[in-house]
Write a structure and sequence with these properties.
alpha+beta, four-stranded parallel β-sheet, globular
Length: 381
């Protein structure tokens, strides 16, 4: 259901998912004067702390969906692995962004890569493995490669590096014989991401490109502006626009890229929502990616995306917490006047769990990175 009239405060907005992305969306929406209903089965969902209403139910619970449809002026989601059919049903009653169809594409790597290529954009060479018989193809063009589950993989989960056809077949069996993608490993210079907001075909804005460094498959640091050629950064922004247009996407879309040694850009994957690599926008841009999410779902013009300062964002995982659950040593970080700490309100710290992040703003990205890394070294002391 399309909305032609802008949705203004104090309308109630709904979001499926109450994790940290939902929390930051809720804060942005509340700051703008909206009310928020969060649907999340977790009684301790981080977003619920700030929401007006918390519906503690499954994402396909019909009674909860019906209440959302009856009480909310527009609905979005904080992550892609909600029920796409739930979003399709909601869209019959209230404006929904992104669409259930776009979610379904992002939920499945096979569909995702096919759509990227349909948009005329490059991916790494890949082979879709929908049944074990597909492994009978000549796998040489995709080796050495990474075998990735088609669904429910994130932060490096559901991925196995394989060097030979024998390893690929063994890994496919270890992953349960579910649909997968075998993707050729390419010589990488770095990884970058571009986050685009599309309110309608005529209202599109792209944030400055971030350079992303990972540790154990999880984003560790984002550097903005990315330390890449300006023309390449502009190309990444344009590719993000082109993909959003091809998908007829409404909302915030993150596009992750591989930068190859030769300077070519290929799309790795997409996220139909605000993204970890866009957290920096809260502190360092005219408009945050969460305000953009609100603007897009409400039919408002996207805000300006100007970068106010070079910035580095550092993820804080549960590994930084003490073994007994004690807090890290926040003292030095909290006393740095150009550092901004964001904690997600999660009750239990576990290794690999995203507990928060901080941003450091400085005159140059190099200076921000040096200080950000030095601050991280103080947290366990």
């Amino acid at each position: 259901m399309a909305s032609h009239k802008p949705i203004l405060p104090p309308a109630m907005l709904g979001i499926l998912g109450g994790g940290q992305l939902g929390r930051m969306f809720t804060v942005a929406a509340k700051t703008m004067g909206y009310r928020v209903t969060v649907l999340d089965p977790d009684g301790n969902a981080p977003a619920a702390e700030f929401a007006d209403v918390h519906l503690r139910a499954a994402y396909n619970d019909h009674a909860a969906l019906k209440e959302l449809a009856e009480t909310c002026a527009a609905i979005t989601t904080e992550f892609e692995n909600v029920n796409a059919d739930s979003m399709r049903w909601l869209a019959q009653h209230v404006p929904v962004s992104p669409s259930g169809d776009c979610l379904a594409i992002a939920q499945d790597r096979i569909q995702e890569k096919a759509w990227i290529r349909k948009a005329g954009l490059a991916t790494a060479p890949y082979l879709a493995l929908e049944t074990v018989e597909d492994l009978n193809h000549d796998l040489t063009p995709y080796l050495p490669g990474i075998l990735k589950t088609a669904r429910l993989g994130y932060d490096g989960k559901g991925q196995v590096r394989v060097a030979t056809a024998v390893e690929a077949r063994a890994a496919y069996a270890d992953l349960g014989g579910q649909p997968c993608v075998l993707e050729k490993m390419l010589p990488l210079a770095c990884e970058v991401s571009a986050i685009v907001t599309r309110s309608n075909p005529h209202e599109v804005a792209v944030f400055p490109v971030a350079e992303n460094r990972h540790a154990k498959g999880i984003l560790d640091v984002s550097i903005v502006p990315a330390q890449v050629d300006a023309a390449l950064a502009a190309q990444a922004q344009q590719m993000a626009r082109q993909l959003a247009e091809a998908l007829d996407y409404i909302g915030v879309l993150a596009v992750e890229f591989f930068v190859l040694d030769g300077g070519e850009l290929v799309i790795n994957e997409i996220a139909p929502r605000p993204h970890n690599s866009g957290h920096y926008t809260i502190d360092a841009c005219v408009t945050s990616q969460y305000e953009q999410q609100v603007r897009a779902m409400c039919g408002l013009h996207p805000g300006r995306t100007d970068l106010l300062s070079p910035v580095v964002m550092v993820n804080l995982l549960g590994d930084v917490w003490q073994d007994d659950g004690g807090e890290p040593n926040w003292a030095v970080l909290m006393q740095a006047p150009n550092a901004h700490l964001h904690l997600y309100g999660k009750r239990e710290a576990r290794p690999g769990r995203k507990m928060g992040h901080y941003c450091v703003l400085a005159d140059t990205a190099a200076a921000a990175l040096e200080q950000a890394e030095a601050l991280k070294d103080t947290l366990g002391t």
